[in-house]
Amino acid sequence: MRFCILTLVLIGILSALVGCSGEPVFEAPSTSQFRHTQEIVESAALSNDGQLSVVSEQGKVCVWDNKISKTLFSCISGDDAKHIELLGFSDDKTKFYISNRMSVHLFSVANGQLLGSWSTGKNIARDIAISANGQLIVVGYRSGEADVINSLTKQNTLFQVHRLDINSVALSADGQTALSGSSDKFSYLWSTKDGTILKEFKLATRVNHVSINENASLGFAIDSVDDRIFLDLNTGIKKAELNIFTNFIEFNHSRFVNDDKWFLTGSPKSTIQLWRVKDGTLLAEYKATQQRIRGSVLAVAYDKENKTIVSESSDGVLEVWPYQPK
User: Fold this and answer.
1) From which domain of life does this come (predicted)?
2) Of 58, 83, 185, 238, which is most buried with the most CB atoms under 10 A?
3) Which domains does the chain have, with CATH numbers?
4) Each residue of 259-284: pLDDT tens digit?
């Protein structure tokens, strides 16, 4: 049996938590907060630097410039904005998508113009990923299939990737390689060109969440009980595991940040955590402001220029968190 002693050390107004690795875990209050809405948020996403937010609430989707705390254009409303549960930005911040799990709509960040729409047919979308320039979109379905959509040609190709539900999908920056996680207990690295499986990773139980870095050399997968591993996507070898002994961890969103040295996660328990990739050590942990009993962190980002962490919650609150790397 593995044991871990947690020691709380107060240092001024900040606190440091000594974690399972023996290293202090940085903790601090947020340095700023901004409320995007008073309503319960159905879904939200951040640009990779946290400068933009897209927030879905009761029949309305708004895109915010977080530097000036204003919407970029009139919010999307009507039938296209109802029950939006999946959304996200391209890394170059030129496009964003929204989905009610039965259709996918792609818009311009510059002016909110609709660039394309695709129906999922009889399939139900479980997760969506988009390439850095927004040209390719991958939709993972309950059927275990995945749709690869080219937003320029308007063509899509359907591949049977998994036997059971695809619960999570992530895409390399160039859109050529996808990482998916399924209820069949596998995480697959596969080609979006022809659906070929390039690498496979077997976890103990259902794979709930995956993440991939920009050049598809590094991945992450977490299952429903206690597997939470970094993956070497070049060799197919499982690398470090998150250095925490709690079971049943869930992540709503994650990113490889700071040139893949760190891994940033947001959880349904209003928690933001920063991990060191090489050994899975927990470096920092923050608790998002909760306006309601069951607050959840829906999206996280890292502003490398200002060395700050950004989060968006189900309460519609954007928060900025300090972190100074050692």
Assistant:
1) Bacteria
2) 185
3) 33-322 (2.130.10.10)
4) 999 999 999 999 999 999 999 999 99
